[in-house]
Write a structure and sequence with these properties.
alpha/beta, D-Maltodextrin-Binding Protein, domain 2, 2 domains, six-stranded mixed sheet, 36% helix
C-alpha cells in the first residue's frame, strides 16, 4: 500500500512539473506573452492591394512586426467587404480603403481621425481579355460605342462600380440598353473575370487591372467621365498595437513607398520634396 501511494505521488509531481515547464504534447507550445512576436492586423481594399503586397514584406523585415492581412472592398455588401467584416466583429489595427469609406469609419468612431493619411489617387480603367481586339475608348463618342458593341460588361462592387452603374450609365443615356448585359462582380477582381472570358470588357481601378494575368489594360475611361478616387489609411480606435500601426501608416505615406505605389498604377500622394530614402521604421 505504501509503495502504491509513493507511485501516485510521483505521478502527481511529474504532472505538475511538466505543466509548469510547458512540457510538449506532440510539439512545442506556441509562443505567447512576451515571447510572441508583435503583429498588426490590417485590412486593405483592392485599389492599394498590389502596392501593399510589395511593401508589406519590406516593413516586416525592417521592424520585425508581423502583418496579418485581410482583403475586401471599401463598400458594398459582399461578405468579405471591409464594412461587413467590421459589422461581424472582425478586429483590425489599420484600415486601408477609399477615402470616402475611411471617412465613414471615422464618423462612426471606428477609425481615429487624427491618424488618417491619404496615400494615392486612382482612375478607372477598362480591361479586355489578353489577345482580344483593343476597343477605342479615347473619346466620349468612342467610349459610348464600345459599351454598346460589347457583348457583356463587368464592373466592381465597390466605389468605381457603383459610379459606373448608378451614375455614368444613366448620364450617357444608356442605362436601359446596358443593364441586361452588365454584371456586378463580387469578391474578386473584375479583370480576373475578364481574363476567364466571362465578360468581354470590365471596369475597375487601374491598379486592380494591371496585376491580373490574362487581362489587358485598354486604357482609362475618357476624362469627361472619369472618377478619381483617393485611397487612405488610418488606425482603428481599438488598435492593440498603436505604435506599430503608426509606423506602418508613416511608411505607407512616405516618399520611400511612393515608387512602389506608382508602379502599381496609382498616383502616390507622398510629398514630391521628400528624401526618397527609406524611413526609420
Amino acid at each position: 500500500m505504501m509503495q502504491r501511494r509513493w507511485q501516485i505521488c510521483a505521478w502527481v509531481v511529474l504532472a505538475v512539473v511538466g505543466a509548469a515547464c510547458g512540457a510538449p504534447s506532440g510539439g512545442p507550445p506556441p509562443a505567447s506573452g512576451a515571447d510572441a512576436p508583435p503583429e498588426l492586423r490590417v485590412v486593405t481594399s483592392g485599389g492599394l492591394a498590389a502596392a501593399y503586397d510589395v511593401l508589406a514584406p519590406r516593413f516586416q523585415d525592417a521592424t520585425g512586426i508581423t502583418l496579418v492581412t485581410a482583403y475586401g472592398a471599401s463598400g458594398g455588401g459582399a461578405s468579405d467587404s471591409i464594412p461587413v467584416r467590421l459589422e461581424r466583429g472582425e478586429r483590425f489595427d489599420v484600415l486601408s480603403m477609399s477615402q470616402a469609406g475611411l471617412l465613414a469609419m471615422i464618423d462612426r468612431g471606428v477609425v481615429r481621425a487624427d491618424t488618417r493619411v491619404d496615400l494615392a489617387t486612382s482612375s478607372i480603367g477598362m480591361a479586355v481579355r489578353e489577345g482580344a481586339a483593343m476597343p477605342d475608348i479615347s473619346t466620349p463618342e468612342a467610349f459610348a460605342r464600345a459599351l454598346l458593341d460589347a457583348e457583356s460588361i463587368g464592373y466592381s462592387a465597390s466605389v468605381s462600380g457603383t459610379y459606373i452603374s448608378t451614375d455614368l450609365f444613366p448620364r450617357l443615356g444608356l442605362a436601359e440598353q446596358l443593364a441586361p448585359k452588365s454584371r456586378r462582380i463580387l469578391s474578386e477582381r473584375v479583370a480576373a473575370v475578364v481574363a476567364r472570358g466571362e465578360v468581354e470588357i470590365g471596369f475597375q481601378q487601374v491598379s486592380e487591372i494591371l496585376s491580373i494575368e490574362g487581362a489587358a489594360y485598354a486604357g482609362p475611361i475618357p476624362d469627361e467621365y472619369q472618377l478619381v478616387t483617393t485611397f487612405s489609411a488610418g488606425m482603428t480606435a481599438e488598435a492593440r498595437n498603436r505604435a506599430g500601426a503608426q509606423r506602418l501608416l508613416d511608411f505607407l505615406s512616405s516618399a520611400a513607398a511612393a515608387p512602389t505605389i506608382a508602379e502599381s498604377g496609382l498616383q502616390p500622394l507622398a510629398l514630391a520634396g521628400g528624401s526618397g530614402g527609406r524611413p526609420e521604421l
